[in-house]
Structure formats: C-alpha cells, structure tokens
Specification:
Strand content: under 5%
Distance between the termini: 40 Å
Number of strands: 0
Oligomer: single chain
Structural class: mainly alpha
Radius of gyration: 18 Å
Shape: extended
Order of helices and strands: HHHH
Number of helices: 4
Largest sheet: none
C-alpha cells in the first residue's frame, strides 16, 4: 500500500511540475473572473496530455467497459434515449 502511495505522490509531483504553466494560467483566469465555463476550462487544460491507466486501476486485457467507453454524461444521454432502461 505504501508503495502505491509513494508512486502516486511522485507522479503527481511530476504532473504538477510539468504543467505548472497551465496551473498558473488557470489561477490568473480565476483571480480575474472567479468562475470559468466548461469551455474555458477545456481551453486552459488543452495542453495537458492524459496519461494512460496503469497498475491496479488499468483495465484488464479484453475488458469491455459497460458504457462502451463513453463518458458518464454521454452514457446518461444514451441511456435516456434507450427504452431498455427504466426511467426514474
């Protein structure tokens, strides 16, 4: 368990260090506006490259995600249009 925590700490430090300019830009915008839209946030975070999952959180080989790899919001939209799911 300790090894996982230590590895996550090292990785978090690497990410924060390598994308410090992005974090600084977000701070500047938030100091100026206090709130930002989803689109503004996406624009600020555009340079950030998502790292692939690994270790215990990585998907198993041959595993198919139940929502087809869609985001939760996309899956929710698809679910609301799919009559096989009961509505609330």
């Amino acid at each position: 368990m300790r090894r996982l925590i230590d590895e996550a700490h090292v990785e978090a430090e690497q990410v924060l260090t390598s994308y410090r300019d992005v974090a600084d830009q977000m701070v500047e915008v938030l100091m100026e506006k206090e709130t930002i839209t989803k689109e503004e946030l996406a624009q600020i975070l555009a340079p950030v490259v998502k790292r692939p999952p690994r270790g215990i959180m990585a998907p198993r080989a041959g595993y198919a995600h139940p929502n087809g790899g869609r985001s939760q919001s996309e899956a929710g939209i698809a679910r609301s249009q799919d009559t096989s799911f009961p509505s609330d």
